[in-house]
Amino acid sequence: MLYDRMRKFQGVFIIVMAAGLLSACGSSIEMTQMMVEHQDGSQPLATATPRFGWQYDTRLENVRQLDYRIVVASTPEKAAQGIGDLWDSKQVASNQMLFVPYGGDSLQSRQQAFWKTYATVCYGKRERRRRVESKVNSFEISLLDSNDWKGQWIGATFDDDQLEGKSKVAARYLRREFPLSGKVKSARLYVSGLGLYNAFINGVEVAPEELLKPTLSDYTRRVYFNTYDVTSMLQKGMNAIGIVLEGGRYTTVRYDAEEAEWGGIHHFMHYGMPQLLLQLEVTYGDGSRVTIVSDERWRISNQGPIRMANEFDGEVYDVRCELGDWSAVGFDDSGWQQVERMPQPGMAIRELPDPSTAVKDRFHLPKAAHPILCAQPNPNIKVQDRIRPVAMFRKGDKWILDMGQNMVGTLDIKMRGQRMGDTVTMRFAETMNHDSTLYVDNLRTVEATDHYICAGGEASWHPQFVFHGFRYVEIEGLREVPMLEDFEGLVMYDEMKATGSFRCSNELMNAVYSNAFWGIRGNYRSMPTDCPQRDERLGWTGDRTTGCYGESYLFDNHRLYSKWLTDAEDSQWANGSLSDVMPAYWRRYTDNMTWPGAFITVADMLYMRYGDSDPIRQHYDAMKRWMIHMRESYTEEGVITRDCYGDWCMPPEQPELIHSKDSNRITAAPLLSSPFYFYLAGKMVQFASLLGKDEDVVYFDRERSAIRTAFNKKYLDSEKGYYGNNTVTANILPFWFGMVPKEMEHRVFNNIIQTTEQDFDGHVSTGVVGIQQLMRTLTEYGRGDVALRIATNESYPSWGYMVRNGATTIWELWNGNTADPAMNSGNHVMLLGDLLLWEYEYLGGISALEPGYSKIRLKPYMVEGLDDVDCSYESVSGMIRSEWKRRGHHFVWDIVVPPNTTAEVWIPTANGYRLQSVGSGRYHFKSKL
What we know:
Distance between the termini: 28 Å
Number of strands: 46
Number of helices: 18
Low-confidence stretches: 1-26, 257-266, 350-367
Helix content: 10-25%
């Protein structure tokens, strides 16, 4: 590494680091991370108008793109030669490298295309120019039209299917043999198995690394299918295809009469019995094609080894029932039965057993005539980490494993010396009782138990169609003493890259960050869930209204959250009302601003974090419909009055309480809903402006002005300088959202500080709604010391209290160990609030000034008590890093700014900040504080 120059101004030294001059060191500039629709090209696209993107890989400084050209061709040879017979963008003078829209003729289902990008970039102080080009990349279009499908939904019902109380349904095994008369040039398998499936061709599993597929949806509205290139799995002559079907959320029935009034249709909809839609398209070398589809020629059995698999209760696997080479050619299926034609997905939906008319009317959602069949836009779940248990002990005739970490996934187990018919039982839990037995009350109705029925001898096994949230495992039925190496935890969540890192000089904060990391990824299950262990596991919106912004630093969750917005719109009623959970497996239409508001904030996150405006464009009308519904239905005296959950999980005044009963801690409904309406209307102004909807810009601007005036008139005590009853949440929402009159800001902020320090002794002073703004507000307005104290507290209520009491993820309750623990999920992320945002954007100082980080702000806030922070984020534009150390009055800072971006760098000094604009590169700063 060479230091090629040093600059100094007003006591600040800047050292620009580069890999050397181009001519001296031969440094290169390469196009990397080629993307179509933010995908790597491994899956066909669910669109006829894809968008393209790329990054640059170079150590040179001040790299800027001046222009680009994209060619899309019908063959790789044409693309390599720069012949865009499908589309040629021509040379475009622009620095855009994200989501460049395809501009050619509409592409068709099954069409394959090849693309290449050319660009002119300049670099260095002298802005030398270079022409760069990418390699040839390819993409394929999936099935886009319902008319592309020739197959039928098939399955069967069996006498031993149990659908009362808790569904217990044996897996279905389906198979068919078929001949192929020539050499296979290409083959695509299009498949949807509801609720879950595994596919096999000629005895080999298709994509065995992908689990719990396809992705979840409201099956009355939308069903997803997967596509696989299976060319290499087929052969000339006879072939066989097999499918294992398990009911998943599609078949799940859970009914709790005691909670029916609270949840309406509570503990899940039942959409129908397991069923399959499949289409295998084979193209021969001469271009002719044969198609094998799901139809009445298939055979089916439910007598295989998976006797029951239920996401909540576990899997029962009986080795004695294994079917041999059932998915290979030549298997004798004469004892199997012919499949049945099944109704369209969701058409067999069941209501509550004898629900009250009031509940039925309130929560009824009319069924669509036919759900939309769509190519899945997000990756499937995979095992993305593996951990070994840290301890094991005997408890009577059982063994207890401690994984050392509250995790989500399954347990792989090795067994020795078992006899025919032995049952090995594995029960899962997050915590232990004092007598070293599993604590399972917080699982509610969930059994969380896997059973393996042995054939004798040695065996290794893990379930296929379930997952558990657990740290501890109770194992019963082992004949030989196990060893720790006999067990492995398979950590499962939606396939995505970890993109962020954060460490600081406070080890308690680092432990909380680790808990957040484990909690977030454990709650990605083709939707962001509230918890992974009990009988809920739902996409509760309020948990992610602000949480999504912080999570997206840690993980590339772009496709997960984009898909979740489709779930949101699919849940919407004709009057505009949105469900509190998405997909709407519980019919919770309570009409409040703070929970479904995630519909808008997630779209904003996707735009700012990834530069993707399509979610805004796609869902804008639905967002507007919801905003108008809320205003027209719940406005009184100019303010929005409707709320349901309040400032949920406000730390109670007594450790044994779940919810506070102190009126001085409870924030009234309008003090939550009205500021949130104001805040979300501001997002709608931005969205409308982006989309060129000028009338809507005026409308939502007017809405903001009107509700601000009415809200301040009704709830602001101008003499005392606070809102409502002076809770921190009542003050912090209008303060952070910009509703407080300028002349009152100082007094309102002082009341926030006074209440936090005096009434809460410098601890968390809000519930779920208020904490979404707490850390940033305190730091932005000069009291980062209070924020740091909250972040480093070890006593109740605090994140540190959870860590000091053994938590390795984030609890649902601040006092989860002293309130009724049956209410406490040990893996909930909603209480994180804006903690992660604060760590990345205020302590690390990394934030986006323009969507997709094409322009970056680097501004670390110096908080007394922290000596160093090392923070990085792999953005869609490239790696951003901020690493600083403070030693007395000396400040040292290393930053990385990715190619084709610029940054505003705010360098801390003794007199505040010094602002410097820089291009891409690596920089080293020194200053005196």
